[in-house]
Design a protein that fits this description.
10 strands; 0% helix; mainly beta; single chain; three-stranded antiparallel sheet; five-stranded antiparallel sheet
Length: 139
Amino acid sequence: RDALPVGGVERSNRFPNSSYFLDWTTPKGALTWDVEVGEPGEFDVEVDYACPEKDLGATVELSFLGNSASATVTEANDPPLIGAEHDRTPRAESYTKDFQPMSMGVLKMDKGRGKLTLRATEIPGSQAWEVSAVRLRRR
C-alpha cells in the first residue's frame, strides 16, 4: 500500500486503507518502492489483482537491480466493489474488491538498495490489471 504509482496508474482513493491501484492503461504505468535488501536471496512473488475477461493477456514484470520475474495475466477476476451496502452515508474512503492472488514466479534479489518496480510490459486490452497488494516470500 506504500507504493508510488507513476505513468498514469492511480490509487482508488487518496486514503490508503483498503485502496488499490487502477488506471493501468499504458506500459509507462508502474508501481515503485524504495527497497533495501540486506541479504540476497530468491523470493516467491504474489500479486493480489483484478482483471476483467476482456482485458486478459497483459504481460507483467517485477524487477529489482537488473533481475526480474514476469507472468501473463490469464485468469479473469472481475469482482464488484464491496462495502457500500453497509454504509448509511457515502464514505470518503475507498471501497474495495475481492482481489485474488496470482503467482509471478521467483525474483532473485541481490543485496543493495534500489527501486522495486512493478510494470506491465504488454497491454493487449484497455488495461493491464488492478492491484491491491504485492507479497515477496523468501524461499
